Amino acid sequence: MLMADYPYFSNFHAEVTDLDQDGAVELSGWMGDKNKQDAGTFFSFTYSDTGSHPVWIDRSELVQGLMVAPQDSEAVHVLPSFSDLDDDGREDALLLRCATSGPDSGRVAFIFYQNTRNGSGGVSWQPRPDWGAGLPDTSVQQVVFTDLDQDGDADLVVGLANSRLQTLVPFVFYENSSAVMPSWQVRPGVLPETIAYDPYWGPVQKPDFLLADFDGDGDEDFLIRHEQAGLIFLRNRLITSVSDGPGVVLPGEIHVQAWPNPLSGRGRFSYSLQSGQRVSLRLYNIMGQVVRVLVEGRRTAGEHSGVIAVEGLPSGLYFLRLSAGGKTATRPLMIVR
Fold it and tell me: Using CA atoms, how far apart are residues 139 and 176, in angstroms rounded to an integer?
């Protein structure tokens, strides 16, 4: 058996890869040690069918050099993902390092490695800390490489875990705007707010999802595990194009816009009301804490706008939440310094 030599390992995370481009796929990933919460190992196996029984061949040399060092003996688990990020035909690595105990519990680190061919034709990993600029550092549950906008490069869908903010958008789309070096930008409107919402049970709190072309139409669809409702399937036809605009607004629905996004100084917001009603517009950080109250009180029907003052707020991912008439709308907002 594949795991027979690893009886003390847990938190198994793996993907199908071809790291050395030899045409034979591997199963590559990370396993945490049951007895040592601050330890784990990277692995890679190639499958071989001898005719009588399948054999897994250890190819750990393919992941030699991938490292995630815990700090202060904290417990960690690692979610590895592989995709060609620099358009050289080789799969690079993203290691999502999650602290599960200690003073930094809940914090994550996006650790990137570039796959560069060594002199013997094998794999050599080069750390690329510059590839993680603009990505969040807390409350990340899962990341998946994708090309939802079909522009030929690897984008990211990030699943956020947060039980404090019930209407928090659980998935954020980060567009990669460069084919030769990752450059991540939040793109609101690509994923609808109700992407992981069940009418009876409400929103997903800890996203667990898979992206694949389930219906064979050439577009990647969503399969989401809801804690109470079970599996939620969402066809790609519900995913809008990459845009900072609100997309299609149905009668009776509300929406909020914010620009520029990302935001480095003062920005602006706008929203519209079909009738006079009480309105609340607040800015939340990724932990679900209110950091700015932008609107609070009764407003008349029509268009409304105002200033988003972010002085004193650190760089990172934030959320604008508009509540009016028993409805809510949430829009991600990235602040960069």
Answer: 21
- The residue among 154, 165, 85 whose CA lies nearest residue 125 is 85
Beta bridge partners of 13: 30
- Indicate the range of 54-63, 138-147, 166-175, 209-218 predicted with least confidence: 166-175
Task: Give whole-number Cα distances, 328 to 11, 173, 178, 324, in Å.
Answer: 36, 20, 34, 6
DSSP-derived secondary structure for 170-182? SEEEEEE--SSS-
Domain ranges across the chain: 11-234, 255-335
Q: How far apart are CA 313 and CA 318, in angstroms?
A: 10
Instruction: Report which listed range, 29-33, 80-84, 166-170, 209-213, is most confident.
Output: 80-84
The mean per-residue pLDDT over the stretch 218-245 comes to 64
CATH topology of domain 11-234: Methylamine Dehydrogenase; Chain H (2.130.10)
Token couple for 279 = 């309105």
Question: What is the dotted CATH code of the domain comprising 255-335?
Answer: 2.60.40.1930
What is the pTM assigned to this prediction? 0.69
Beta-bridge mates of residue 226 = 230
Distance, CA of 165 to CA of 168 (rounded, Å)? 5
Q: Contact at 8 Å (CB) between 295 and 309?
A: no
Alpha carbon distance 244, 112 (integer Å): 27
d(CA 220, CA 98): 27
What CA–CA distance (Å, rounded) separates 71 from 146? Answer: 31
Which residues lie across from 98 on neighbouring strands? 77, 108
C-alpha closest to that of 325 among 247, 249, 255: 255
Measured CA to CA, the distance from residue 68 to residue 77 in angstroms comes to 9
**Residue showing tokens 């959320």:** 319
CA separation, residue 19 to residues 23, 129, 235 (Å): 9, 20, 31
Query: b/e string for 61-74 if b means 16 or more Cβ within 10 A?
Result: ebbebbebebeeeb
Please state, in angstroms and rounded to a whole number, the distance separating the CA atoms of residues 124 and 119. 9
